[in-house]
């Protein structure tokens, strides 16, 4: 008995031409996908607002979505894939590619295409702050100031080094702010330089939100950076890269499915690299909300 060939799949391939690698030729990737049974239609967009709207509009023309860009571009697709239920593949073409790193998706676009061709998917959590989705982290304070300083020009010129250069510049000018944090553990008032709420594992070009965090654990990981001397941050960099910053007395950590944060003055909030809202902020987790293509075991 002859085994019938696998059904071909249709992919809507959304490309951010402004991503750090957004000008790379994709013909080879499209051909590789086609040979693997995935017929991709490329569509380039001008603004992030177009991404989710395009996914929703063309939901009946595709079996899956492939997003070509960095973490900000993938974030732009979140509402679209959440609404349609379409699985999402990732071509990491940005600067940090933190979600791709969390999922174990290779930087090499050909190998990333192979992940989509293989067809293995996982369901991952999605964070939300004031109704805005995030895959990696949402932050206020230093993190939001850093997001504003990381212009497309800085990212394109310096790549991941741009994060370190911008972070040092921001830290030297940082001033603490007072915030109230509400969670399952109760209410606490802090004087802090940054509050970050993580859904995934990696953020900021490879830092780890918590040493035991996953993007499938059903809760959010919060930390508050309560330094009195900003120069001590330099000593803590290694701990942040390993997700062990909670071992320092100056870092408060918490896990919860919801957080509410209030500040005296509205503070801007950065989600996956873009400023989208401000305090007061309500954070919540959506467990296993998104289906993504990922290597087996991820």
Describe it for me?
The model has no long low-confidence stretch (mean pLDDT 87). The two termini are 35 Å apart. This protein is an alpha+beta fold and 298 residues long. Strand 3 (64-69), helix 3 (71-84) and strand 4 (88-92) form a beta-alpha-beta unit. The longest helix has 14 residues, at 71-84. The radius of gyration is 19 Å and the shape is elongated. 29% of the residues lie in helices and 35% in strands. It folds into two domains: 9-119, Probable inorganic polyphosphate/atp-NAD kinase, domain 1 (Rossmann fold); 132-287, Tumour Suppressor Smad4, CATH 2.60.200.
In short:
The chain has 298 residues and is α+β, with helices and mostly antiparallel strands. The chain contains 9 helices and 18 strands.
């Amino acid at each position: 008995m002859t085994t019938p060939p696998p059904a071909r799949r249709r992919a809507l391939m959304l490309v951010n031409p402004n991503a750090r690698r957004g000008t790379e030729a994709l013909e080879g990737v499209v051909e590789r996908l086609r040979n693997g049974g995935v017929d991709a239609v490329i569509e380039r967009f001008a603004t992030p607002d177009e991404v989710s709207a395009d996914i929703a509009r063309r939901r009946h023309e595709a079996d899956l979505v492939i997003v070509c860009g960095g973490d900000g571009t993938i974030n732009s697709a979140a509402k679209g894939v959440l609404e349609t239920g379409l699985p999402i593949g990732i071509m990491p073409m940005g600067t940090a590619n933190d979600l791709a790193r969390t999922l174990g998706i290779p930087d090499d676009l050909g190998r990333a295409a192979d992940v989509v061709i293989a067809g293995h998917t996982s369901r991952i959590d999605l964070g939300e702050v004031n109704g805005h989705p995030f895959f990696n982290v949402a932050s206020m304070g230093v993190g939001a100031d850093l997001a504003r300083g990381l212009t497309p020009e800085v990212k394109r010129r310096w790549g991941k080094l741009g994060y370190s250069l911008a972070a040092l510049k921001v830290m030297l000018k940082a001033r603490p702010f007072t915030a109230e944090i509400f969670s399952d553990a109760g209410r606490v008032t802090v004087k802090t330089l940054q509050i970050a709420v993580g859904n995934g594992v990696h953020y900021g070009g490879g830092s780890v939100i918590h040493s035991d965090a996953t993007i499938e654990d059903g809760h959010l990981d919060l930390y508050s950076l309560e330094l009195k001397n900003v120069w001590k941050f330099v000593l803590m960099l290694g701990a942040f890269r390993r997700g062990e910053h909670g071992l320092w007395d100056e870092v408060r950590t918490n896990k919860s499915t919801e957080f509410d944060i209030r500040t005296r003055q509205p503070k801007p909030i950065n989600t996956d690299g873009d400023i989208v809202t401000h305090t007061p902020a309500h954070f919540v987790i959506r467990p296993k909300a998104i289906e993504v293509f990922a290597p087996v075991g991820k």
